[in-house]
Each structure stands twice: as C-alpha cells, then as structure tokens.
Amino acid sequence: MSHRYDPQSPERDSAGWLAGSPTVQTLAVFLVVFAVQSVVGLVSRSLALGLFALGPSVSARPWTLLVSVYAHASVGHLVSNAVVLVLVGLAVERVTTTVRFHLFFASVGMLAGLAQVAVAGVLGPGAVVLGASGAVFGLLGYLLAGNPVTDAVLGRLPLSPRARVALLLALAGVVTLFTASPGVALVAHFVGFALGAVAGRARLLNV
Q1: pLDDT, tens digit, for every residue of 57-70?
Q2: CB 61 within 8 A of CB 50
Q3: Which among 127, 146, 130 has a CA at the least distance from the CA of 76?
Q4: How far is 113 from 129, CA to CA, in rounded Å?
Q5: Is the torsion defined by CA of 24, 92, 167, 83 positive or negative?
Q6: Residue 5 lies in a domain
Q7: Residue 145: which of 107, 177, 171 has the closest Cα?
Q8: CATH code (residue 58)
C-alpha cells in the first residue's frame, strides 16, 4: 500500500527521510541514467542518443518515451533540472504519496516530450528530446495552481471556470517564454506546466 510521505514525521531519521523522499529518489534515477548514458556515449555517441532520446521514431524505440524523461544531454542540463526539481518537488511531495508523485512525474514528462516531438515534426524535419524539464514544469504548475494563495486570488476574480483555465494557460505561456533560448524544448515546457496547473486546480495528487 502506498503512503503519504511526511518529512516532518518524528519517526523518520535523516537516512529514512532521504530514502523515503520521491524527490530524492527521482534525483537518484537521474544520476543512474546519466551514468549509463555516459558509458554508452564513450562507445558511440549516436548509440547513446538512439537509446535514450525521444524522437519521431518512438514506435520503433518505445522505451525512449520513458527513459528520455530521466536522461540529460549534459552535466549542466542535469544540474539545472535537478535544482528546480528539489525546489518544487520537496513542496509537492508533502501533499501526496510516493507512488502518485512518480506516476505524475513520469506521465507529464512523457506527454510533454511527445508534444515537443509532434510539434517539431509539423514545423520541420523533427527533433529529439532529452530531459526532465517537462515533468519538472508539471510539478511547478501543480505547485502554483494548487496552493491556497492561488485559490484566494482566483476566488476574488469574477471569472468562469473556463476563463480560469484560460488564465492558467496564459500563465503557462508566460513562464515558458522566460525559459526561451536556443535548444530549449519550449513546447514541452508549456505542455508540462499546463498539465501541472490543471492537475493542481483539480488537486489530483492531494491525499
């Protein structure tokens, strides 16, 4: 049976806190996958890309749909995602269970990656996607949309439920634009944040 993770429980020592935190567990997966990537990359860079990156040929390499969420293109890429994951993940995990956290992270990451590949395929020759940015943005969207402060602000606005959703999508667009730079998967960022925001309004992870 899954349980809600409570880092403030007096029954947990520091070792138990680290072992039980889904955020820390996700960081550990990042490191393991990146280590394997690095070893494979020493043999063949193209092989590493084919094994870990999500691309238009997802039906031929279906495992990349999940693996790409935890894989990263460089140490800097890994560190940047890890820092944001810690900042938002530790907050989100307080209201949910370990299983729900991991399912949400993986699902949002995969959907965000698929959206990036699909849009890139329509606009050009296609692209490959690596990294947890979409999933991390999903956690950020959940945190911002599902907290009492947001409830209070939205409650004061004379908006219909559809208008509130539109406002959250607009916020997703603004947040996405702040991350714009060459090589950044903006579609994945937008989709991840939008999915997280909608899930946050629905309290999908809360127990």
Answers
A1: 888 999 999 999 99
A2: yes
A3: 130
A4: 6
A5: negative
A6: no
A7: 171
A8: 1.20.1540.10
